[in-house]
Amino acid sequence: MNRTPILFLNVLVIATCGLVYELLAGTLASYVLGDSVTQFSLIIGIYLFAMGAGSWLSRFVEGELARRFVDVELAVALLGGFSAPLLFLTFAHLSYFQVVLYGLVFLIGAAVGLEIPLLMRILKDHLDFKELVARVLAFDYAGALIASLLFPIFLVPRLGLVRTSLLFGFFNAAVGLWATWLMRPLIGGRSVARLRAQAAVVMALLAVAFVKADALTSLAEDAMFADDIVYSKTTHYQRIVVTRNRAGFQLFLNGNLQFSSADEYRYHEALVHPAMTLAGEGGRAPRRVLVLGGGDGLALREVLKYPSVEEVTLVDLDPDMTELSRRFPPLAGLNRGAFDDPRVRVVNEDAMLWLETDGPPFDAALIDFPDPNTFALGKLYTTRFYQMLKRRLAPDAAVAVQSTSPLFARSSYWCIVRTLEASGLSVRPYYTAVPSFGVWGFALARRAPFEVPQRAPSVGLRFLDDRALPAMFMLSADLGPVPVEVNRLDNQSLVRYYEAEWRRYE
Amino acid sequence: MNRRGLSRRELLAAFLGAPFALAACGSRGAETPPLPEGDIVGVSDRVGHLIRDGHRPEPEAWERAGVVIVGGGVAGLAAAWRLLRAGFDDFVLLELEPEPGGTARSGRAHGVVPYPWGAHYLPAPRAENRALVALLDELGVLEGPDAEGQPVVAEQFLCRDPEERVFYRGRWYEGLYLHAGAGAEDARQLQLFNAEVDWWSAWRDTRGRRAFDIPVARCSDDAEVTALDRVSMGEWMRARGLTSERLRWLVDYACRDDYGLTAEQASAWAGLFYFASRVAGPGAEARSLITWPEGNGRIVRHLYEKARSRVRLGLAVADVREGVAAESAAVNSRDARGGVEVVAVRGDGGGSVGFRADRVVFAAPQFMTKYLLKSYREGAAPAHVAEFEYGAWVVANLFLADRPRAGFGFPEAWDNVLYESPSLGYVIATHQRGFERGPTVHTYYYPLTDADPRAARARLLSAGRDEWAEVALSDLGRAHRDMRTLTRRLDVMRWGHAMIRPRVGFQWGGARQKAQAPHGRVHFANTDLSGVALFEEAFDHGLRAAEEVLAARGVKSETMRG
Question: What domains are defined for chain B?
Answer without folding.
Answer: 8-32+390-500 (no CATH), 46-105+297-385+505-553 (3.50.50.60), 179-244+255-284 (no CATH)
